Amino acid sequence: MSRTPEQPGLTPKFCFNQTALRDFLRISRGTVDDTISQNLNALVTPGTSKSFDPLSTTERAPRPIHRRPIDPQACHDFKNKVLFPSWQSRSDVLSYCAAVATSPDPDDPDHVIRETEDLKARERIIDERLDPYSARYFPREARTEALAGLMRNERMVENIIRSRTWGLVGERCENGELDYEGALDAWRRGEGRGR
Questions:
Q1: Where is the composition biased (Polar residues) (predicted)?
Q2: CA dist., res. 115 & res. 139, Å (int)
Q3: pLDDT tens digits for 86-124?
Q4: What is the pTM of this model?
Q5: How far is CA 192 from CA 73, 80, 136, in A?
Q6: Among the four 54, 127, 142, 153, which has the fewest Cβ within 10 Å?
């Protein structure tokens, strides 16, 4: 079974380091969600099926391994020990960094530069007849704004990936009537952890 990466220490410095943030999300998704078919196939124990049945040779197309049902206990353990903890770890990072993105940033290193550029832009004399581009001014984006945009994108990606993963898990394991959000909430409440 896949081993999920450890959740990094949640600090504003980690969130503003977009490379580290994206790497954690990419590695976590790659370990569990991107390889979900392989992870589910690994749950099927070879040789545990019933003994050889001569009538099975009359079947035209035997059921491929990726369609074989998985032992319910193995599915339950995979969801509770690998899938949901991975999702929860990413949810924690996304929620924390989204909170950082909406908080004031007193340590912004570009704050003074942005204020200087804004002041210069206000003092410029604009004559669009002489230079039609003179009115253009593109202020630098604060790092909290950049982080907020990244968090919006990553949340959308996360929803797409979780929906796809949950659909594949549902084909091989019994997911009940819950969607992935309901199943994750049930796991968070402890309903799925103890079974």
A1: 47-59
A2: 9
A3: 999 999 999 999 998 888 776 766 655 656 665 666 666
A4: 0.71
A5: 12, 7, 56
A6: 54
